[in-house]
Amino acid sequence: MVKFLHTADIHLDSPLKGLERYEGAPVEEIRGATRQALGHLVQLAIDEKVDFVLIAGDLYDGDWRDHRTGLFFVSEVSKLREAGIQVCLIAGNHDAANRMTRSLRLPDNVLRFSTKRPETHSFDDLGVSVHGQGFATAACTDNLAEAYPASVPGHFNIGLLHTSAAGSAAHPNYAQCCYDDLRSKRYDYWALGHIHQRGCVWDDPRIHFSGNIQGRHIREAGAKGCLVVTVDDRQQAELRFEPLDVLRWERCLVDATGAEDGYAVVESVARKLGDLVATSEGRPLAARVEISGACRAHERLAADMHQWTNEVRAVVYGLGRGNVWIEKVQFQTSLPRDEHASLADDGPLSELVEYIAEVRDNDALLAKLAEEFADLSRKLPNELKDLDDALPFGDPKAIRPLLEQVQPLLLSRLAGRSIDVNT
């Protein structure tokens, strides 16, 4: 039996984004999250008594600011050396050879693959051969997989590759290849890196992305960790995901359909956050709350989003013993259709409703409106433009849902109706 860990995209010392500006967030713990996650990886390898660890690129987040990043890695893999565990490592786009101006001599249990051509490292005592090549330059667009060698007869063959594979809208397309390129090598397992979302892209042979080990922002939500791969005497591989993350990012999706008031929505948020806390296994949780649905509460939510954002933030103090933080609250609610009709009679307000609907459903009108807003946004101070949650007024796709948001508030104001945000 052979056992190994498949990991990638550690991005050691990469900063986590979006929480440092929030009062009460554990800034120091956030800054050290990738180091702690790597520590968890090393301890898991020792506890599982694995034979080797595969790191499929982007161990580092780019060139080190100083040698402390490299020294920390050396200290961790030295623990693996003491336990008799080998490490196979390739460079990805973030730690490509041409990006790294500093280096340290690594312990002799670390096998760093060439960036010039594919190499094969065979563990004859295990009956395993690992094939791999690192990135020589950050913008590697070559299909590296094409040049990988043929499988070693009688061995369990592993391909170690940093690649966007068939392409991903969320990641730059580096070392792109098709799955036929990988299957043609007749390897038993492909350990892929670069895509930060864990996933199986092919089952026979096994072709897997392990994802990254620590989410760094809300686009990397959910449990993060590595794959524990066990190979039996018939060279059949069984996989198990093992979480390693220190702080977990989650999207808290709340359906507010039918809610009568803002506090009913806040109660729904509290319940949903409670469910997420229960599944985070004691980890600190960073959540983006997304509230959607047609409800009468929409008027009050739209009238003072700042207040209701703080109402949502307030509920977290009763959850998770202070281990929950709100990264952002997004309101995507709307009024029920019958409420739209009651706000607009047969007079000028109905014409306004029709015009808003026409703009919302007409791409040309929406683009024209976006151009006008873009011109206004260019006049804003830079500190407002650079905010993470600044509205992209120049994007017609972003304006369309905003029209749905503001219509009931606009109609209420024009009709002389007041909205009490506290009821």
Topology of this structure?
Blueprint lengths: L1 E6 L19 H5 L1 H16 L3 E5 L11 H15 L3 E5 L19 E3 L6 E5 L4 E5 L23 E7 L16 H5 L5 E5 L5 E4 L3 E4 L15 E7 L5 E7 L4 E8 L6 H17 L6 E10 L3 H6 L1 H11 L8 E11 L2 H7 L4 H14 L1 H15 L4 H4 L10 H19 L9
Parallel strand pairs: 1-2, 2-3, 3-4, 6-7, 7-8, 8-10, 13-14, 14-15
Antiparallel strand pairs: 1-11, 5-6, 9-10, 11-12
Helix pairs in contact: 2-3, 5-7, 9-10, 9-12, 10-12
CATH class of the largest domain: Alpha Beta
Distance between the termini: 65 Å
* CATH fold-level name of the largest domain: Purple Acid Phosphatase, chain A, domain 2
Task: Characterize the quaternary organization of these chains.
Answer: single chain
Structural class by helix and strand composition: alpha/beta
- Domains counted in the coordinates: how many? 2
How many helices in DSSP terms?
12
- How many E strands? 15
- Low-confidence spans: pLDDT under 50, at least 5 residues? 418-423
- From the alpha-carbon coordinates, what is the Rg to the nearest angstrom? 26 Å
Biggest sheet descriptor = 6 strands, mixed
Mean of residue pLDDT values: 86
Strand-and-helix sequence, N→C?
EHHEHEEEEEHEEEEEEHEHHEHHHHH
Broad shape: elongated
Can you list the strand order of the major beta sheet?
4-3-2-1-11-12
Q: Helix content range of the residues, please?
A: 25-40%
CATH architecture annotation of the largest domain: 4-Layer Sandwich
Portion of residues in beta strands equals 15-25%
CATH homologous superfamily assignment of the largest domain:
Metallo-dependent phosphatases
